[in-house]
């Protein structure tokens, strides 16, 4: 800090010293120095993309811990902050009134000093097809620890490559987060595809005092398989029908439950651009929600899209895992902050998940453990820090 800042701290320490017993002083000093120290994070570690940035910023806001991130997205063809990362960073700056250095396009290093989380209404317009699901991924854990309910209005890409489709956020991620006691209302108003974007959604996020631990290790029996196969713009309806048929073939005879899939074309009110995709999910008797998806590219093959998503979900159901590979990394922050030990039965860990674990351990002091059961399945557990929302 500056010399003036040092003078203020000295006076602050004196007041603490004369006001509290020695034991409280000792714990206070330890906590103060840990929380006020700037943590430096290497953005090129493991996955080396936007995952480190999002998770580190979210935890920085929640824990009020200043961070410095270097080598941002060093493992990507175009390193540094891109559109969606910059919009996510600026949103978190607004939410916490943070002091920020380096928040400009292509910046490879930032420093972020957050303040208190301010609940309210926030709007982000990426002006491109940048993924609004990734912006939501960064802001959701933060606003959960605000004082009051918050609302996000997000404009950009809803179904774009290299990011979760927004449908999976509400249909697959949300049921998993509800196990922790976290939920949100999600309203998809318009879809936005590459390259124009223009998709729009509203998300209402109530606060929580603390997070429950989860024990997602018992698969149970499949109670429901459902899904949505959609096309938009000039793409013909038969592509959606092909997706549906191909996915159904892959999911037949997996369990006693027959899949219930919808095939439809989006109305002009929802989107005028060309786009397509498939979202599938299964729900089990033990409360597990597992999902898969596929996104249409420039040349759409409905059969291949449906087969891809159907095969992925069928494999999860055969293996009997409770958390799919796309959700596992998004649960890491919540496992780290929960009170007690959380456990999930999942697939082999992705690089995104290992990256999220590294950041969570570095910033919270929690510890993740990995074991393999007799079936060769992966069980990931974490002793969370029991973080409490003191604003409520």
Would you write up a description of this structure?
The protein contains 10 helices and 16 strands. It has helices spanning 3-19, 22-36, 50-63, 83-96, 132-143, 166-178, 237-251, 302-319, 332-337, 351-364; strands at residues 39-42, 67-70, 99-101, 110-113, 121-125, 150-156, 185-190, 199-205, 215-216, 222-232, 260-265, 275-284, 289-295, 339-346, 367-372, 378-385. It has 4 domains: 39-116; 119-208, UDP-n-acetylglucosamine1-carboxyvinyl-transferase, Chain; 213-217 and 322-391, Translation Initiation Factor IF3 (2-Layer Sandwich); 222-319, RNA 3'-terminal phosphate cyclase, insert domain (Dihydrodipicolinate Reductase, domain 2, 2-Layer Sandwich). The model is unreliable at 1-34 (pLDDT under 50). The strands form 4 sheets. It has a 4-stranded mixed sheet with strand order 1-2-4-3, with helices on one face. Strands 5-6-8-7 form a 4-stranded mixed sheet, covered by helices on one side. It has a 4-stranded mixed sheet with strand order 9-14-16-15. Strand 12 (275-284) and strand 13 form a beta hairpin. It is of the alpha/beta class and 392 residues long. Helix 3 (50-63) packs parallel to helix 4, helix 3 (50-63) packs parallel to helix 10 and helix 4 packs parallel to helix 5. GO terms for molecular function: ATP binding; RNA-3'-phosphate cyclase activity. Its EC number is 6.5.1.4. ATP binds at residues 137, 326-330. One of its GO terms (cellular component) is nucleus.
Strand content bin? 25-35%
Output the CATH topology of the largest domain.
Dihydrodipicolinate Reductase, domain 2
Number of domains: 4
How would the global form be characterised? globular
Query: Can you count the helices?
Result: 10
Mean pLDDT: 90
| Alpha-beta content class | alpha/beta
Task: Report the major sheet.
Answer: 4 strands, mixed
Q: Total strand count, please?
A: 16
Q: Strand order across the biggest sheet?
A: 1-2-4-3
Helicity, as a percent range? 25-40%
Low-confidence residue ranges: 1-34
The name of the CATH superfamily of the largest domain reads: RNA 3'-terminal phosphate cyclase, insert domain
Q: Please provide the ordered H/E string of secondary-structure elements.
A: HHEHEHEEEHEHEEEEHEEEHHEHEE
**Rg, alpha carbons:** 22 Å
Please identify, by name, the CATH architecture of the largest domain.
2-Layer Sandwich
Distance between the termini: 30 Å
CATH class of the largest domain: Alpha Beta
């Amino acid at each position: 800090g500056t010399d003036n800042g040092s003078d203020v701290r000295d006076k602050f320490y004196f007041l603490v010293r004369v006001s509290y017993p020695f034991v409280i002083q000792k714990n206070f000093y330890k906590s103060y120095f840990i929380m006020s120290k700037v943590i430096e994070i290497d953005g090129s570690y493991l996955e080396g993309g936007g995952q480190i940035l999002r998770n580190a910023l979210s935890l920085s806001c929640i824990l009020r811990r200043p961070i410095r991130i270097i080598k941002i997205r060093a493992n990507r063809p175009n390193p540094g902050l891109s559109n969606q990362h910059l919009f996510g960073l600026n949103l978190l700056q607004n939410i916490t009134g943070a002091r920020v250095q380096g928040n400009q396009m292509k910046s490879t290093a930032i420093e972020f000093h957050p303040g208190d989380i301010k609940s309210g209404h926030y709007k982000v317009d990426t002006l491109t097809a940048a993924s609004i699901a990734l912006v939501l991924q960064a802001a959701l854990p933060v606003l959960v620890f605000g004082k009051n309910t918050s609302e996000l209005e997000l404009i950009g890409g809803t179904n774009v490559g290299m990011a979760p489709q927004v449908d999976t956020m509400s249909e697959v991620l949300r049921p998993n987060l509800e196990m922790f006691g976290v939920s949100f209302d999600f309203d998809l108003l318009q879809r936005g595809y590459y390259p124009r974007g223009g998709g729009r959604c509203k998300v209402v996020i109530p606060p929580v005092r603390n997070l429950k631990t989860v024990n997602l290790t018992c698969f149970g029996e499949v109670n429901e398989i459902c899904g949505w196969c959609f096309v938009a713009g000039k793409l013909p309806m038969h592509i959606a029908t092909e997706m549906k048929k191909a996915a159904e073939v892959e999911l037949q005879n997996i369990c006693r439950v027959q899949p219930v899939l919808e095939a439809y074309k989006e109305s002009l009110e929802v989107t005028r651009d060309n786009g397509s995709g498939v979202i599938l999910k299964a729900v089990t008797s033990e409360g597990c929600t597992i999902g898969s998806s596929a996104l249409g590219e420039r040349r759409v093959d409905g059969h291949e899209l449906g087969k891809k998503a159907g095969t992925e979900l069928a494999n999860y159901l055969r293996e009997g895992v409770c958390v799919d590979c796309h959700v596992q990394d998004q649960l890491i922050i919540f496992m780290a902050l929960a009170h007690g030990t959380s456990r999930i039965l999942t697939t082999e860990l992705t690089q995104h998940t290992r990256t999220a674990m590294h950041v969570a351990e570095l910033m919270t002091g929690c510890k993740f453990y990995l074991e393999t059961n007799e079936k060769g399945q992966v069980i990931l557990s974490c002793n969370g820090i029991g973080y409490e929302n003191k604003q409520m």
